[in-house]
Each structure stands twice: as C-alpha cells, then as structure tokens.
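User: Can you help me understand a structure? I only have the sequence.
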Amino acid sequence: MSRIDAAFERALRENARGFIPYFTAGYPDRDTFGAILRAAADAGSLAIEVGIPFSDPIADGPIIQASSEAALRAGVRMGAIFEMIREFRTTHNTPVVLMGYVNPILHHGFDAFVRDAADAGADGVIVPDLPPEDAGDLIAAARGREFATIFLAATTSADERLRRIADASTGYVYFVSRLGVTGVGAAPDESLGRMVDRLRRFTALPIAAGFGVSEPEHVRAVWAQADAAIVGSALVRLIAAQTDRANVASAVARECSRLMGR
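Assistant: Let's start by predicting it. Here is the structure, written out as tokens:
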C-alpha cells in the first residue's frame, strides 16, 4: 500500500479528515524549507504538496507566483527539489506530492521524473496544465512505480470530464473548489457539497479540496464535504511575512494547528 493510501486509510479508521498544506520548494531558502516540511508533518498533516517553481504558473495566484519567482532566482531546480525531499524522507514518513507544470517535467522526461521523484521519496504528482487525455506517458511511467497521478476536477467539469479525471487519478482527486487561480478567499459555499457528491459517483478515491481555503472555518467547511482540505497561499503568505527565518518553521506549525482547529 502506498504512503498516500495508508495515510487516508488511517484517517478513515480514526473518523478524521485530512489536512494537506502546500509549500513552494526551496522557499524561502533550502534550509528553512526543510524545517517547514518537518514542522508541517509534525503538526499532523496527512500529506504535503511541494510546488515545483515555474516561470509561468497559470493556475497560481500572485502569492505563490512570487514564491516561485524567488525560488527560481535562488537557483531551485528539479535536482535540488529531489534532494530536499530525500533529506525530509530520512526523518519523516508523511506523503509528499509534487505539484508542477508540464514543461519542466517534460524537459526532465516523464520516465526519468517519476523514477527520480520516487527514488527521492515523493509519492505522486499533480500537473495542472496536463489534461488526463494527454497524460498517457506520465500515467504509464507512474503505474510502474506505484506513483500517484492526481488530476484536478473543477466546479465547471461535466460528468464525462469527471469520469475521465477519476479514471486517470490515483491517491486522491484534487477538487478545485472555486473558479480562478490559487489564493486566499471566501469560505466554500453549499455548491461544494453538490460537486463533491457528483464526483463521488465516479470514484472511490479520497477527494481533497483546495483553492481559496485559508481560514479554520474554510477547512471545517471542506471537511464537512470532502476527505481533506488543501491550504497553499495562506501558508506561503505567512512564510513571506516572516522577517526572522529562524522562526518560520514554528510559525508554520502554529498556523497548521490553528487551521486544523487544534
């Protein structure tokens, strides 16, 4: 059983919902990023999404875009990301899911990307600009490694589209709870429940919802409908606001606990 499957199964046994934070790889610097990953895991995250910095992140709002630009300026590239995950894996078993755009992954090569990511200790990948009908090579490489391919379903997805997304996904399905790019926003409304119910008709996989989830009440609203809540921009904004990097990891741990209502 994969680390992702085991984590969700454990949550199910405990009648609990999952919390999945997102952090941009190597931001604000390599050592601090490593401390952030460990702090988020110790705070009780079900899994952690790690963003691969990219110069043209079409699904990301200004907060994550700025962190990606800073990481790229600092020289964060694919090899360094794998090394940071490898270091995290020496101390923690929390699943790590990479999230990035297709160009850098294609440049690395789908087979080589899956091999190197899995060898480093990553457990899956989300590629927002790679639709499932064009992801055959990535899926084939991933299935050979028990490496999850997680696709995005949106509020605007038709039933046939939801079926295709569900069939191509392993680990969990990422439900985009609002239109637009990532960022802090308003609490998910009652339409989230209807959309999650529609998606559940096509998959038995856990459903994790993100985009705009930034406050404890947002997390609770997601947990009322889905299996996990994903928080990205709110945490990256917190990291950006810290003037003393020695305190960043502890601030992230406190914020993760606050968002989870602990």
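Now, to help you interpret it: The mean pLDDT is 93. DSSP finds twelve helices and nine strands in the chain. Let me know which part you'd like to focus on.
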